Amino acid sequence: MIQYQKILFPIKLSDSTVQLIPHVESLAKHYNSEVHFVYVAKASEYYVEDEPIAGKSIQEKFQAFVEKHCQAFVETKTVLLQGEVASEILSYAQRVKPDMIIMAIKGRSALGKAVFGSVAGEVVRDAEIPVLLARSMSKRQTKK
Fold this sequence. Notes:
The chain is an alpha/beta fold. It contains 7 helices and 5 strands, in the order βαβααβαβααβα. Helix 4 (about 85-95) runs parallel beside helix 6. The radius of gyration is 15 Å and the shape is globular.
């Protein structure tokens, strides 16, 4: 039987992540998984002028997002990384050895974008473990 003891959930501080959280939570509860919430900050988010400690403000935003939307998870780790998103996700996966990566993708031509060059596409192509991509619903779909 397949067990997902450790799930890597790279997040964006956005609605697409919020929409996916209940699904990740359900899987985590079912398999009693530890979930690693990972946010990869761009240099412009991480190195803010006049900020005495690099990454402090984005770390606070990341923590606030997790506290607001992810309280129901039992076993978690939160990790802030800085750099090129796909390579940082893949590098983190190599270090911590999760059983699965779960990522949100945007609704616009999701399959095409996943296959032809998005962050999710790069992770899918280069990851050595299963990657579950979930399309976030558009505003129009959520109103139905």
